[in-house]
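Your task
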Amino acid sequence: MTSSHNPLLDGIRVLDLSRVLAGPFCTMTLGDLGADVIKVEQPGSGDDTRHWGPPFTESGLSAYYLCANRNKRSLTLNLKTEDGQRIVRELIRQSDVLIENFKAGTLEGWGLSYDTLQELRPGLIYCTITGYGYGNAFSDQAGYDFIIQALGGLMSITGPADGEPYKVGVAITDIMTGQFAANAILAALFARERTGDGQRIDMALFDAQVAMLANVASNYLVSGKPPRRFGNAHPNIVPYQTFKASDIYFAIGVGNDSQWRKLCDAIGKPEWGTDTRYAKNEARVENRTELIPLLADVFVSRPAADWITLLETLGIPGAPINSVDRVFADPRVAARRLRIEAEHPTSGMLPMVASPLNIPTAPVQVRYAPPILGEHTDAILSEMLGYDEARIAALRNTNVI
């Protein structure tokens, strides 16, 4: 289905002073939805992730940088200079959202506080992303995804039950903080339509991580017992984990007692479906140390494909543990158009993961490939601020841009 409607955030301008992942992932989401995102970067070096590799494209673009920076225009600007700060103020007058992830208080030190900018641009949505938020004893501490996965409890519940705690394989705290921030910004923009008021949004990586503990945090708050690691198993549902088939590992999720009985019948163990130790999920959770080895002995007898086919016929969720190359070979990726390409001025056609925001009535489009550092500096200063070539050249000669 296609639509002639404008993108949902058409006409919204985002001034993006963030870098690395949490902020850029947030602003990429807003850009995917149609906002005009101006990515402000340090002249000469740019976003830290431009240098995080290998791998790099043949023209030297970092794969890491590419994952979070499409649908943006790049403006180089030295924010530590008076001229750079003046240009930011001029851009803010024409912007709807400002997002930054400097150390807490940095923008205030540059005279770019929320209150000051509200006077300059009434109705501005002002979003900060820091490690531990504003207004507390920890505000001065820098935030890093890996450290906050450790501090915020995620690593304590990730990894083998009797082994080393593990981090998640991607910077999930950064990514989720970016998505929480995007939600808050969208809500603020919606409210502004009714009230005209701007908002001060104070996002913290630590807050997002604790919130992401979800049912595990709730388990602790209700029981008073610190959760432990279960490897690939589930703390509240059994069997809901990985098993080794005769060839590879696969995942199975038995979500209720009816599915459990179907599984027991299908694997030739109907007595397990009525055994009081296993018949109810609560009993299976209590007796998992006895039950799981019994299931493991069954599942190791046949290839994973056989079990997955059986599970499909029973209506029980199951899947192989795919490597990333097998993910992109999976027909579901093609069915959902999750692998896309965008034309880049120096790297040709860039492969990327598509936005998961599938909105048939207002389709997400790649309007800009991840930009070259400063690719749009002259155009932005000329179109938005009316600077002529001489003025832009003077700013470049003094290392402001």
Remarks:
- DSSP finds 18 helices and eleven strands in the chain.
- Residues 75 and 257 are 57 Å apart (CA to CA).
